Amino acid sequence: MDISAAGVDFIKSFEGLFLEAYPDPGTGGDPWTIGYGCTEGVRPGMVISESQAEAMLAEELDIFVAAVNQLVTVSLSQKEFDALVSFSYNCGVGALKNSTLLRRLNGGDERCLVYNEELPRWINGGNGPMPGLVRR
């Protein structure tokens, strides 16, 4: 599967567009972030254009789309796929790979129950719950 345009728009709506690099809100430092939440190769003081932000997002999303395709062994709806790409984009491939969410989903547990019980476990930054993660 591939992420839908609606899935990309969902990620953009939560990440926002920042053309100047900023420290990670959860840590106050690394990883530095730019564009629509991109972190690969970002350093303090970096400035990009909107078209560069779009290209960076597309490039980084390829990694997370591939990870969800590789790690999830059950069939997903497009919205579920988009949500899991968004989750892994925000928390990292390692978080998805090692999560109880993935184990339960692949194990055939009832999906609504899995999502309702597991996703709220991923709302914390370095200093506790982050409003943006709670809302997402």
Walk me through this protein's architecture.
- The chain has 136 residues and is mostly helical.
- Helices cover 53% and strands 9% of the residues.
- The chain is built from 7 helices and 4 strands.
- It has helices at residues 5-15, 50-71, 78-91, 93-97, 100-106, 111-118, 131-135; strands spanning 18-22, 33-35, 124-125, 128-129.
- It has a two-stranded antiparallel sheet with strand order 1-2. The protein has a two-stranded antiparallel sheet with strand order 3-4.
- Helix 1 runs parallel beside helix 3 (78-91), helix 2 (50-71) packs across helix 3 and helix 5 (100-106) runs antiparallel to helix 6.
- The model has no long low-confidence stretch (mean pLDDT 92).
Shape: globular
Q: Tell me the strand order in the biggest sheet.
A: 1-2
Q: Topology as H/E string?
A: HEEHHHHHEEH
Mean pLDDT: 92
Unreliable segments of 5+ consecutive residues: none
Termini Cα gap:
22 Å
Radius of gyration: 15 Å
List how many beta strands DSSP finds.
Answer: 4
Q: What percent of residues adopt helix (DSSP H or I)?
A: 40-55%
Largest sheet: 2 strands, antiparallel
Helix/sheet category: mainly alpha
